[in-house]
Specification:
elongated
């Protein structure tokens, strides 16, 4: 292919490509999405012309003459409610549960364990994933059919949320229950949604916990560690979140509007343009 420039978004698979590209005299830029850094991420900057970062706190890990804060690119669909797939017949709060594209079996099981109790206080859009091993999607659909009539319409399980649907989901959600990967965290902050984050504990350098802490520090998230994750603890966290929502407050007891403004203040909404500008400047 002989590219003029290599754009890397980290991961160990990027390392040999970046090294070979640099040896062949190609320009290299790399982007770090998370708050922290791993071994590969410490090596890559030596071969990169520019290191683009999502978070200012990451600057300490990288050469100052190469590092630049761009933010993390946001898909425009999250701001555009184009679909009409998620309709509820009441005015209860809406909770969006997601474990990422593949879903999270542990999060799903905690929801299933307390589904009746949860639906007494809110509507749920539940992105389960479509694992052929856990069969959580099948269990979700079976549980929906077994619900009493007054609860069935409050529960919408989906294997995936598609691009044309995600804007409607974010527009309607009052609270998100999710893992705290870099993209998920950034999108939740950008849309000003309150969240209960359940970080994956085994990822490199506990990066999901650190991502979640950014949202927690501005008052927009509770962190429920996976070691404590079960149906009862998740329901207790949800009850607490609902109390804050009813009081129109962030989790730091500040007005919710203030917490939302602080959340959006740590997001760079022009990250895509900043990244393109850097790429173009290295090609000129």
């Amino acid at each position: 292919v002989r590219p003029h420039i290599i754009v890397s978004f980290w991961g160990y698979l990027a390392l040999p490509i970046v090294i070979v590209g640099k040896l062949l005299g190609r320009r290299v830029v790399t982007h770090e999405q998370t708050v922290t850094t791993g071994l590969t991420n410490k090596i890559l900057p030596y071969f990169a012309d520019k290191v683009m970062l999502s978070w200012p706190s990451s600057l300490v890990h990288y050469p100052q003459n190469k590092a630049v804060i761009t933010g993390n690119p946001l898909r425009p669909e999250i701001f555009t409610p184009d679909s009409h797939q998620f309709q509820f017949k009441n005015n209860l709060p809406v909770v969006y549960v997601t474990g990422g594209n593949q879903g999270s079996h542990k999060v799903n099981q905690a929801i299933f364990d307390q589904l009746h109790e949860i639906l007494e206080i809110c509507n749920v859009i539940h992105q389960t994933g479509n694992s052929s091993v856990t069969k959580d999607a099948d269990q979700a659909n079976q549980l929906k059919l077994s619900l009493p009539d007054h609860l069935r319409d409050r529960y919408i399980p989906k294997t995936f949320i598609f691009e044309n649907e995600i804007g409607e989901v974010f527009a309607k959600a009052d609270l998100v229950i999710a893992r705290s990967g870099a993209n998920t965290t950034y999108e939740i902050l950008a849309t000003g949604k309150m969240a209960i984050f359940i970080p994956i504990p085994w990822v490199t350098h506990n990066e999901q916990y650190l991502n979640a802490k950014v949202a927690s520090d501005v008052g927009m998230a509770l962190i429920l560690e996976e070691a404590r994750l079960n149906g009862i603890n998740l329901k207790n966290a949800l009850d607490l979140a609902m109390r804050y929502l009813r009081q129109n407050k962030g989790f730091n007891d500040k007005p919710l509007a203030e917490a939302r403004a602080a959340a959006k203040g740590v997001v760079r909404f022009d990250a895509d343009k900043s990244i393109v500008d850097i790429i173009e400047s290295l090609l000129s």
